[in-house]
Amino acid sequence: MSSALTFTPAGIYCPAGDFYIDPWKPVDRALITHGHADHARWGMGSYLATDTAAPVMRHRLGDVSIDTVAYGETLTIGGAKVSFHPAGHVPGSAQIRVEVEGEVWVASGDYKVVDDGLSTPFEPVKCHHFITESTFGLPVFRWQAQDVIAAQINDWWAGCAAAGKTAFLGCYALGKAQRLMSMLNPDIGPILTHTAIENTNAVMRTQGIALVDTVQAGADLVHKDHPGALVLAPPSALGSAWARKFGAQETAFASGWMAVRGIRRRRAGDRGFVISDHADWSGLLCAIKDTEAENIYVTHGYTDIFTRYLNDQGWNAQVLQTEFGGEDAEDEAA
User: Fold this and answer.
1) Closest-CA residue to 35 (of 12, 11, 17, 60)
2) pTM over 0.85
């Protein structure tokens, strides 16, 4: 039996269907797990993604050809049966199931197994071969409950407001920002958003995704008209000339990397909140176990360490070299 998926210099390839999954070089046909820049790249002949992911992809990539599919809908592409299943990473993110002659593979893209209240929750998919990320594939990475982190962020924001400071919270424009918005208490003050985040918000609102009210913090915004505000901005915008216009302020980052003290210090923010749209150590192991797959392929993250652990636990695991990034790759300006 030939393999349903193979690994090529352009990306993960399905010979039976003549398509690639999240390719990192231009190809004729690309199936895309989600809209982050390291998975949905410009230059493909055509794209296939979930109906929820496609609008943000069009916003980012421009006038490209994107066909859409609903979660759980089965398509026949050449000699392959293909379906997309919730990954829980960001709205519209998917695991892609590929079946050829009874052999089932699942390419998970990026995922998390906790329900964030915004994305369609992760759905385990049984398969023979599972391609998993390992962004946070170390035992040190274990996430606290979302309501605990929400209380921490809101307490910090309220303290900033009481001190007459603007609270700047660094986060990624697609997924993380909207998740944080759902966690914020708008009774504390107004929620302002960097243009990159507000542009993504506008796309999601057009789709009918419910988001709290926000004010775009453009160049013409008078910050004194918004006392006690919290500003959501990409990490690259913190400390910029734009941010300094807001006067007295505190800065914080919302990222899984805030679990590591050295990274918190290098970020030079006043606070760090440990929250990620990727699975933690326990989540990765839970997802892999639930697939019942015997063969595991580990992509971006702590690939070597995580692969060794999986092999020690009885899986047949190997490192898969890709050009996907981790959480830092999601710091987009578009």
Assistant:
1) 60
2) yes
